[in-house]
Automatic annotation (TrEMBL), chain A:
<dbReference type="Pfam" id="PF00528">
    <property type="entry name" value="BPD_transp_1"/>
</dbReference>
<dbReference type="GO" id="GO:0055085">
    <property type="term" value="P:transmembrane transport"/>
</dbReference>
<keyword id="KW-1003">Cell membrane</keyword>
<feature type="transmembrane region" description="Helical">
    <location>
        <begin position="240"/>
        <end position="263"/>
    </location>
</feature>
<keyword id="KW-0812">Transmembrane</keyword>
<keyword id="KW-1133">Transmembrane helix</keyword>
<keyword id="KW-0813">Transport</keyword>
<dbReference type="InterPro" id="IPR000515">
    <property type="entry name" value="MetI-like"/>
</dbReference>
<dbReference type="InterPro" id="IPR050366">
    <property type="entry name" value="BP-dependent_transpt_permease"/>
</dbReference>
UniProtKB/TrEMBL annotation, chain B:
<dbReference type="GO" id="GO:0030288">
    <property type="term" value="C:outer membrane-bounded periplasmic space"/>
</dbReference>
<dbReference type="InterPro" id="IPR030678">
    <property type="entry name" value="Peptide/Ni-bd"/>
</dbReference>
<keyword id="KW-0732">Signal</keyword>
<comment type="similarity">
    <text>Belongs to the bacterial solute-binding protein 5 family.</text>
</comment>
<dbReference type="Pfam" id="PF00496">
    <property type="entry name" value="SBP_bac_5"/>
</dbReference>
<feature type="domain" description="Solute-binding protein family 5">
    <location>
        <begin position="87"/>
        <end position="429"/>
    </location>
</feature>
<protein>
    <submittedName>
        <fullName>ABC transporter substrate-binding protein</fullName>
    </submittedName>
</protein>
<dbReference type="InterPro" id="IPR039424">
    <property type="entry name" value="SBP_5"/>
</dbReference>
<dbReference type="GO" id="GO:1904680">
    <property type="term" value="F:peptide transmembrane transporter activity"/>
</dbReference>
Amino acid sequence: MSAVHRFRLHSWGARFGLAVACVWVFTALFAPWLSPHSPDAIDLTRELSPPTSGHLLGTGENGIDVLTHVLYGARVSLEVSFFAVVLSAALGITLGGIAGYAGGLVDEALMRLVDVLLAFPGILLALFITAVLGPSLANVVFALSFTGWTGYARLTRGQVLTLRERDYVQAARALGSGPGRILVRHLLPNAAGPLLVQATFALPGAIVAEASLSFLGLGVPPGTPSWGALVDQGTQYLLVAPHVALFPGIALALTVLGFNLLGDALRDAMDPRHEGR
Amino acid sequence: MDVLPDIHPVTDAMPPLPSRAARVFVLALALVLDAGCRAPTPAAGVTVLLEAPPDSLDDRFALTAHGQRLAQLISPGLLTFDDASRPVPQLAESFRDVSATVVEFILRPGLTFHDGSALTAEDVKATFDSLRDPKLGSPKRERYEPVDRVEVVDARTVRFHLKRPYAPLLAELSAAILPSERAGPGGIEAQGTHPVGAGPFRFESWPDEEHLTLVPFEGWHGGKPAVSRLTFRVVRDETTRVLELLKGRADLVVNGVSPAVLPALRKASHLRVVTKPGTGFTYLGINLREGPLADVRVRQALCHLIDVRPLVEHKLHGLAEPASSMLPREHWAFTATPGCGYAPEEAARLLDAAGYPDPDGPGGKPRLSFTFKTSTDRFRRAVALVMKEQLAKGGIAVEVRALEFGTFFEDVRRGRFELFTLKWAAVMEPDLLRGAFHSANVPGPENHWGGFNRGALKDPALDRVLDAATQASREERRTLYAEAQRELDADMPVIPLWHEASVAVVSSRLADFEPSAHGLLLPLAKAREVTPEDGGTP
């Protein structure tokens, strides 16, 4: 039974995760058309109003529409997490592939660098980077990528180490293929499954990390719609306007739950031990 | 047909307990849990919440507002300031100018320190000698540079001899008076950890930086305070402070709750919110060193585009007064100036005249673009975003950059900004105008980047007026500061925003507490603790 088939038949969790991912991407792409107000609109006279027909999820600080910021927040989450995961994966897979294939001193040096970076809590390192560089989307992506590539590097190295002595790799080598070609054409495609699962799990991690940085005031610039920034704003008004933190918090929790379930389903689908279950 | 089962109370449905011991255990557990769920009964005394711990309880070293305010509660000075920022006697009974360079203080009779020793003119001399002593290393030493010597005339009379006439000196003579044996470098540690003074409250314990306990002093010249004990607790998170007040676990917070949260506190029957016009000053700082902002017409245009009224009404819930000067309306040296007022048409005219026409009409490309730096404080960020929108309507694009406070403040000190917002915590002595706008006080290596003229205003005429005011009589000073305020109104080196009110949230266990305009804690000396026997909330 193929992995795709296994995934399709998988539990409600897979279907829920896929649905959340689809809704999230759709919302992020079409936020300008779905949102009832401009994300920049400020109306001090309506500051911290409860939900009404004009503002379905109420208003937040400076009278911003919470629904609009939740919808646009999905866009920021998508941008940041997508680019952070792509950059981390690109860097981690490249360096992990080189370490695994080259071995020796190169492997030692790269893996010790990974050890050093892993010794720091990722969010602390990201906090330090954004504190130094200042809050901006690009800096958040850079900070998350800087701390996120190590997982891919370790995983890729492990995969390459197990695959590099396989017959088809020996054959490619005997036919005169260079290390680059062997890595790109033979090793990495065969290591793609676990890496895809890793990326699926990294996505909610990046969403939470962006929200955490924005919650601490070191994520997106002020005024940029972000779930973390909105929760941060709402915590100050929990007693007078709980809706400000509640709705973005729900969006954040649902998205992270959805992607974790999707990651679980993918992992199970890629796992040959689940064959026939 | 199904038969509905009998409905039993939950306790009946529980399986039988194996023994009497087990029953006793469950009962005890239930009691413990119940006790844990209820709000603990507050201990006797009054609990005050602070947002941050004091840096020192020795006034000579305290630089934070909390440190200074607590130090003054334990060891007050010769003078304090009333709500109009006029110096009024505290430990002194009276003071007078003997000549242009000699000020004389007469102490109240019968003053004693908390340890029972008499407070005399010798202690006053020792205190100010220590402040001026480089060996002590007080960060406030330079403030006493104009003092030539301190003379003890008799046990209750002390004279300050100045090197030159220096009117702002009185502001510095509010420093805490210490026992002479503690004034020298050898007394720093004792005074820092177990301070002794002659204030209304006596130090009891300071087990860690989060907790401090004071008890009333019978020998206080104003009579023993009617509070059995003062406990200060540091609660950094605002929501937690609010919950502590609502749960009755705290009795007082001064200027530690945002205006937006006050409606929730006003609803609580055991709390009252007391306000008073404050002396804090919030402003929009401008870099005058180069670029379009060096042109006064651009600065005036910015001022005409910022509408402070909706900010005061909605962001501050009316708990502020729009500012036209650094000095609040109640200040003795305040002078009303024309100010700029919200006038977008006038702003457009000024920008056209300054050579920044609107390139493509309203809503298109901006006339000018600036970076607006602020700290990551939520309120400051929100205000910056409102100003951004207001300025955008006038064709001025603003990028708001929120920076961690240390980075932000360093940028401001080093002149690495175009626009920023900051607040002076309390404006008492009008000589602060000289600190903030005199050309000699532009931050630079010569003053270790500590000058307060951060926008780098250089106006020789203003410098002359501010210098003259330091050597003039009180009436002359009022005239000179009026002239200075008019000059600043024309120069517009900063855009005055508002003076925030002093706001205290007080529980029903504390009566007669009136906040000070400066946010001082000394009004606690006149407050009264209400016990359950008096009808207060236990």
